[in-house]
Amino acid sequence: MKRREFIKTSAATCCGAVIGAGFLERALGNNSFDTNVSEESLRKFIALDESDFKRLADTSIFLANKNSASYSDIRVCKYRNQSINTSEERIQNISDSENLGFGVRVLINGSWGFASSSLVNENEVIKVTNLACEIAKANSVLQKFPVELVPVNSYTDNYKTEIKINPFDVSITDKINLQLKYNKIAKSTGADYVDSYMWFINEWKYFASSEGSYIVQDLYRIWAGTEPTVIDKENGNYESRKAIIAPMSMGYEYFSELPFEKEIETAVENTKMKLKAPSVVPGKKDIIIHGNNLYLTIHESCGHPTELDRALGYEANYAGTSFMTPEKLGNLKYGSELINLKADRTQKYGLATRGYDDDGVKTTEFPIVENGVFVNYQTTREQAKNISNKESFACAYADSWSHFPIQRMPNISLLPGKEKRSLEDMISDTEDGILIIGDGSWSIDMQRYNFQFTGQEFWEIKNGKKTTMLNDVAYQGNTVDFWNSCDSICDESEYYLGGSLFCGKGEPGQISPVSHGAVPARFRQINILNTKSQI
Fold first, then answer.
1. Which of 161, 155, 145, 152 is nearest to 200 (CA)?
2. Residue 9 pLDDT level (bands cut at 50, 70, 90)
3. Torsional sign, CA 420, 421, 422, 425
4. How do 90-108 and 111-117 pair as beta strands?
């Protein structure tokens, strides 16, 4: 972007916008970034090729071996994050940052040692590897049970997210103009206020291990959203409804392949209806939950409780434990026979999709729940032995070169029904119920058992027909009773892939991207709360 073009865009649309100095310098043509990465460090990093990274990795692995490490690995990572936020015709914020560094793990006397640095050069690799070895030796004095890793094959490979258009090749001006166009659509359709955002993420990493793996991964994620607000001028009440577009592992084609404009128009029109919708009468109701709401219920009530570290109590101090404890594996009737939940780190567009995890294990798919029965936990190389598994399910991930990899959630999805059934078919087969669309607020206990969820839209169903919109709805239950009450699910034509970029876990805290696919499903006699009068 030329200086004159940038200033023109800023003056016309963003008086008072918050623009970081790093972005301003980038926009004016300089190689400077709003991050702690120096221009010199970045230039040196970009100048390295795979042979240089292999040399650095081999140096680290050689030193770790000399220090009696039974295993070691190194991750060299570079991250880029760019975001744009607007309200109506105004730019609220633009951020563009890069972050790079490396981390070394070593296993000595059955204990882990880990150290990291933001300086990527040979001297620093030597220093950090020696430090990691010293930490491992110190930790071994206190280690009660030695770490045992299940076997893994070695790989030399390159993996890249399938994208058509690199989002970082698209100018800030074009992105701003597109976002302001969406805001204009919302305003012209009747929104009084509108907030929008775009988020672009690139995660590049080089992984090498003492077991012979050399793996390069180049991962892309993208997310954009628009939320209009409509005000009732007579009484001052207001309502909002998000445009329901999920984050995905895609390139900039995200905006042309997903129905943003139509969804924004729908969001505004349905927000107007929410202002006039009557409040729900609480009580037991059959509910049909759309996949764009159910994905979040899957995340909280299946994804988290089947994390093995939680089930073993290792996350109790922060993220909680799990009611799905090891004795329930293969025995717990988690849901009705219709419920099949699959984990898949190879799924197209999935946020947790990649070629290999941060243990260097090739990603795969595996069942979590089969015909209603709980059959598998999510595992890493270190955890698998705890449930007598001989292989890892490739669920190790660290959100930074400065963080130790921990077990993180793969994409977990509800498989569609085998019989042909649309959402309209399901509605026509329901006498008295509520259709729930879009994710809202949620609450669930630390064992991932008792919960309540809201949504974006709620529609009354009477005698097989969707009638009036309702307001102030939340559904409440416990995980086992809820999933066992499911008596109908739609076929694959109704499949929706939702997800989050920011699933939190661990100490120090880490975030992880993950997707969940779902189809509309019906649940019988679920407790409905009125959020206005009961919460």
1. 161
2. very low
3. positive
4. antiparallel
The amino acid that residue 53 corresponds to is: F
The continuous run of DSSP H or E covering 196 comes out as strand 193-209
Torsion (CA) 481, 482, 488, 491 in degrees, nearest 10: -130
Contacts of 216 (CB under 8 A, 6+ apart): 50, 157, 158, 159, 204, 205, 206, 207
And the tokens for 462? 């009477």
Yes or no: say if 353 and 249 are a contact pair by the CB < 8 Å rule.
yes
Please give the domain boundaries of the chain with CATH numbers for all domains: 3-273 (3.30.2290.10), 283-530 (no CATH)
Peptide bond into 146 cis (omega under 30): no
Residues sharing a CB contact under 8 Å with residue 240, sequence separation 6 or more, in sequence order:
227, 228, 229, 230, 271
Angstrom distance (rounded) from CA 74 to CA 404: 11
Beta carbons of 76 and 93 less than 8 angstroms apart: no
With a cut of 60, say whether residue 23 has pLDDT above it: no
Nearest residue to 221 (alpha-carbon basis) of 354, 113, 412: 354
Choose among 526, 369, 368, 515: nearest CA to 453. Answer: 526
3-state secondary structure 427-495: HHCCCEEEEEEEEEEEEECCCCCEEEEEEEEEEEEECCEEEEEEECEEEEEEHHHHHHCEEEECCHHHC
CA distance 490 to 28: 52
pTM of the predicted protein model: 0.91
Distance from C-alpha of 17 to C-alpha of 277, rounded to nearest angstrom: 37
- Residue 351: which of 305, 397, 401, 300 has the closest Cα? 397
Across 364-377, average pLDDT: 98
Among 395, 354, 343, 352, which Cα is nearest to 161's? 354
Average pLDDT, the chain: 92
Q: Radius of gyration over alpha carbons of the chain, in Å?
A: 25
Q: Provide the 10 A C-beta neighbour count for residue 140.
A: 17
pLDDT band at 36 (very low <50, low <70, confident <90, very high): low
Contact call for residues 109 and 148 (beta carbons, < 8 A): no
Pick the closest to residue 197 from 159, 243, 129, 232 (CA basis): 243
pLDDT tens by residue, 62-97? 999 999 999 999 999 999 999 999 999 999 999 999
Helix or strand or coil: residue 364? coil
pLDDT in tens, 117-151: 999 999 999 999 999 999 999 999 999 899 999 99
